[in-house]
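Pasting as-is:
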Amino acid sequence: MWTDTRPAAEMPRLFERGGDLISFAGGLPDLDVLPLEAISGQLSRLVRLGGKLAFQYTTPHVAKALVPAIKDLMAREGAHAEAANLVPTSGSQMGLMAVALGLGAPGETVLVQTPAYPGATAAFRTAGLDLHSVADDRDGMDPAELRRTVLRLRADGRTARLLYCNPTNQNPTGRTLSVERRKELLAVCRELDLLLIEDNPYGLLSFDGGTTTAFQALDPDRVVYLGTFSKIFAPGLRSGWIAAPDHVLPALSRTAEVIALSPSALAQAALAAFHTRAGWTDLIDGYRASYRERCGLMADALEQELGTSGPWTWERPNGGFYIWLRHRDGVDTARYAAAAAEHGVSFVPGGHFSVDGEHADGLRLCFSHVPRKKIAEGVARLAAALAGPAPEGGDR
């Protein structure tokens, strides 16, 4: 059910380009890694031999040829789903919308790991759900705080059944929940009958090649898993999937079909053909190497330009696309956006990752797509914009 009675769902401006702008805003993958010549040949063959099917409507299921490609990806983090439990999506953003509309009801509360991906909070709000953040401790989302929060909400008469989590190489912090912490959170979910929504675009993009056991692998009946090809292949195909437990599968399947009618047969066939011929390992390794290098360049530049004892703090992530900065004095970083634009650089203010303004003192920098030679220059421009006192006002 769509509703406009909740706070406005706002998405940051991620993909603006032009002029001399160096953008640290949008989480674009480095498509230089893609073997475009090989993909071109595969697409040409696909269209030549099966174009009438590839360009047609199809059934609202994951294509049989694509199932092994999805199973391969999920197995790398210990997860598994049968073909019958896979729901096709046009990327994980559609999956989030399907979850919000199919599993929630307007006025219910969804618990959210914060700082949170803005696309998730926008989807939940668009569906009329209320958001409530769960506090962290040094190891990430705090299981004891999750229990206290849910019990308090229910005592106040509010319905809280869903928990949203982006657990591996998280957007925007780059942090990963340990397996032990995942087990503790799942124990609370079982105790309080919560369904965990595992949003996992970056799980295979740890710089050292390691992986962390997925929530879905630990308790497949308690977890709705959102997967996407956008970060390990390319976002332009707009293809992803939901791995759903039996008890919520009908609702998610119906909702996804209403949203999209059918998945792209061409996109699914192209992905299946690539996996059949090349597998995922070389491509994922190429992406990991690219992001490891770019992250190092950005972190080194931040240390040189901002130092380590000034008002800005950050951690070097071990994977993903982003570095998350915080202002020690709690200044709203939206105030710096205009100054950054004047210096020819962009970022995403931390307020976009908040449920109730609790992360407005942060800012997200994306390194994944910036030309290597431009990273240090972009950080120097950013440092110049951040050097002065925080301007008054600002636009979130």
